[in-house]
Design a protein that fits this description.
The complex is a heterodimer of chains A (490) and B (95). Chain A has 490 residues and is α/β, with parallel strands linked by helices. Chain A is built from 16 helices and 11 strands. Chain B is flat and about 55 Å long. Classes of the chains: A alpha/beta (490), B mainly alpha (95).
């Protein structure tokens, strides 16, 4: 059953080939067998999952197959989305004991669509990282090579989907946190346009960049999940009131005449030649489907990483000020006064990378430095968005590799934060510009997955999923599974 | 522009995060590596470029001035580290 995609499982449930309870129990058994090797979950909510599955089966029996788009389908949530009554840690010691009294909008919507939650997936602490090595609960292993990172920050969701411990999972993307781990684990991940998916109950990292989205094994599955996740929510002040199109209806659209822009900067020095080869081969497949490849320039690309590493830490320093040991989460032992309570709670509760980013952000926003850093970064951010708007006058989408390298080994980049930051060189621009972007598997290099990224125009998620789906209909890279997932039996 | 340990110490005070003296040299070095990368921005002429805080230059929405939240005081207090009589407890601030 785990070999089926989410869409196939949906059909299986509708036809009555298996029940949601059987499917859920099957995944729980796989999680029990494979989790020790992967560490992709922080919490597995087996009892609640089985109860929800039985309720879904009962709903189907009573009200028929139209009672929920995702009725009875097991998924997992990144542990950044608040779940009422279920610990939501954001992979931090700071929230190790935090049990939210409410559900995030994404959790609410997916439950309303009938989805069954298997549990909460591991991640980089507060979503700050590209390797999952900053998690308080230990790193997630890449199912393709367990000595390598799964990417980050949504590494748990990516590894769980790749190892077929769930067919799909929720995730978030501030600078590449959906697309980079999707690329490194050989799955499909979509970062929607800024404001497309409600951030209500999604623990904030950098509020002008954060966006929730789906991770799955195919573009079709991502479309199913996004259909349930997307839409206006008054409780998120940045939610955009833009109609949600029928993503699934657009999947089969023709690619005839689609103009794909290839930025020179995405194929330059620093890119693994084996990745370039795989990406060019994938683009050639799209040409066969009628797409036209056009060379373009995005002149401010090299400024994206510096710009991001001012904006994201600055906003993080403000957002993470709420963790003070007073209202929820960790509190240090025996504080002598209020200042001691704050400073020691935060010193003990946050990990090294989180503290580093709070310091950089606090500095960038402090008196005398604001103009040189945050203000300057906001101006460069506009130049980066304008590069895209100009490109979109001649092309429909922009494409290139998702990452410059395949999954790297544990410890390889953690000692040098800047080398880690540069792994996000191709993904960060879409966050700065607010644009939707999709990563799909497009080959293997050094026996590890390669990601192909498409960046679309504002709210053009349907087009991106359409391109991904058409590509996946004529290729089978998205069907490849790591040996680890296969050895565990049916 | 690189910053020294005194500047880091003042940033740490602003951020309300205690840093042990022995952590200072390594922390300062790492933050300076990050600032050196970020300083690439200085070379770009941004005169006249408007700031971008939101990709769509969206403004904050207004809503009717009406009560929309229900009372969840008990639920919120239940997850606090220390409470008493419906209030959050912190160490004594005023003697």
């Amino acid at each position: 059953m785990h070999r089926l995609t989410l869409a196939e499982q949906r059909q299986g449930l509708i036809r009555g080939d298996f029940s949601s309870r059987e499917l859920t129990a099957h995944y729980l058994a796989r999680i029990e067998r494979l989790e020790p090797a992967l560490n992709s979950f922080i919490s597995v909510t087996a009892e609640a999952a089985l109860a929800a599955a039985e309720a879904a089966d009962a709903t189907r029996a009573r009200h028929g197959n139209d009672s929920g788009l995702l009725l009875g389908l097991p998924i997992a949530h990144k542990d950044i989305f608040c779940t009422a009554g279920v610990r939501t840690s954001c992979a931090s010691k700071m929230l190790d004991n935090f049990v939210p009294p409410y559900d995030a909008a994404v959790v609410e919507r997916l439950r309303a669509a009938g989805a069954v939650s298997l549990g909460k997936t591991n991640m980089d602490e507060f979503a700050m990282g590209s390797s999952n090595e900053t998690s308080y609960y230990g790193p997630v292993k890449n199912p393709w090579a367990t000595d390598c990172v799964p990417g980050g920050s949504s590494g748990g969701s990516a590894a769980a989907v790749a190892a077929q411990l769930c067919a799909a999972a929720t995730a978030t993307d501030t600078g590449g946190s959906i697309r980079q781990p999707a690329a490194l684990c050989g799955i499909t991940g979509l970062k929607p346009s800024y404001g497309r998916v409600s951030r209500h109950g999604m623990i904030a990292f950098a509020s002008s960049l954060d966006q929730g989205g789906p991770m799955a094994r195919s573009a079709e599955d991502a479309a199913l999940l996004l259909a349930a996740m997307a839409g206006f929510d008054a409780r998120d002040s940045t939610s955009m009131d833009v109609p949600v199109p029928d993503y699934r209806a657009a999947l089969g659209d023709s690619l005839e005449g689609l103009r794909i822009g290839l930025p020179g900067a995405y194929f330059s020095a620093g890119l693994d030649p084996a990745i370039e080869q795989a990406v060019r081969a994938a683009l050639a497949e799209l040409e066969k489907l009628g797409a036209i490849l056009v060379d373009i320039e995005l002149p401010h690309t090299e400024l994206a990483v510096p710009c991001y590493y001012v904006i994201a830490p600055s906003e993080a320093s403000a957002n993470l000020a709420r963790f003070d040991g007073v209202r929820y989460g960790y509190r240090c032992a025996d504080p002598v006064d209020l200042d001691d309570l704050y400073t020691r709670t935060r010193a003990e509760g946050f990990g090294e990378e989180v503290k580093r980013r709070i310091f950089v952000g606090t500095y960038a926003l402090s008196a005398g430095y604001y103009d040189a850093y945050y203000r300057k970064a906001q101006q460069i951010r506009r130049l980066i968005r304008e590069d895209f708007l100009k490109a979109f006058k001649t092309v429909d989408v922009v494409a290139g590799p998702t990452t410059p390298h395949t999954a790297f080994r544990f410890g390889e980049k953690i000692a040098d934060p800047v080398s880690m930051y540069l792994e996000d060189v191709y993904t960060i621009s879409a966050n700065l510009a607010g644009l939707p972007a999709l990563s799909i598997p497009a080959g293997l290099a050094q026996h590890k997955p390669v990601g192909l990224q498409f960046i679309g125009q504002d709210f053009a998620e349907a087009r991106l999923l359409n391109i991904g789906h058409r590509y996946q209909q004529v290729t089978d890279w998205h069907r490849r599974t790591p040996a680890l997932a296969q050895e565990a039996g049916a | 522009m690189p910053i020294d340990q005194d500047a880091i110490a003042s940033v740490a005070r602003l951020a309300r995060i205690r840093v042990a003296p022995e952590e200072m040299p390594a922390l300062t070095a790492r933050i300076n590596t990050i600032l050196a990368m970020v300083d690439q921005m200085a070379a770009v002429d941004t005169a006249g470029v408007e700031l971008m805080a939101n990709p769509f230059d969206a403004r904050q929405r207004l809503r009717e001035d009406a009560v929309t939240e229900t009372d969840q005081r008990a639920a919120f207090l239940a997850i606090a580290p220390a409470t008493e009589g419906g209030l959050y407890l912190v160490p004594k601030v005023i003697d």
